[in-house]
Write a structure and sequence with these properties.
The protein contains six helices and no strands. The protein is mainly alpha-helical and 115 residues long. The termini are far apart.
Length: 115
């Protein structure tokens, strides 16, 4: 007794629901990327010092700070820990504070030692 008269193959139906990768779930917005970069500049530390304190490689910091770089959410948490502020402050842009240079962290209203 034969069940099929000719050979047939079946393909599995495509999945209706795609799984999001871990990077897509925890991705930061472009505005948050810029805020993390500004926070790293405001720390007034070299990239090597940030890497050593954050526990990551210097290459990771260089890549995140580049013009096309996208800092990871984990790096945002480490920067917040280094700055002793909350992650929300780093991601929202509340750190560095308004009136402070986003490049170096200095208070813009001080005269930087000039009389």
């Amino acid at each position: 007794m034969t069940i099929l008269r000719e050979r047939q193959t079946w393909k599995r139906a495509p999945s209706i629901r795609k799984r999001k990768s871990r990077n897509q779930v925890f991705a930061l917005t472009p505005e948050q990327h810029a805020n993390v970069k500004a926070a790293m500049r405001a720390l007034r530390m070299t990239q090597a010092q940030i890497a050593a304190a954050a526990g990551c490689s210097t290459k990771a910091i260089e890549k995140a700070m580049s013009t096309k770089g996208r800092p990871a959410p984990g790096l945002a948490m480490r920067v917040a820990q280094l700055a002793q502020v909350t992650v929300e402050d780093v991601l929202s842009g509340a750190f560095p504070k308004a009136g402070h240079c986003p490049r170096c962290g200095w208070d813009l209203f001080l005269k930087h030692g000039r009389g």
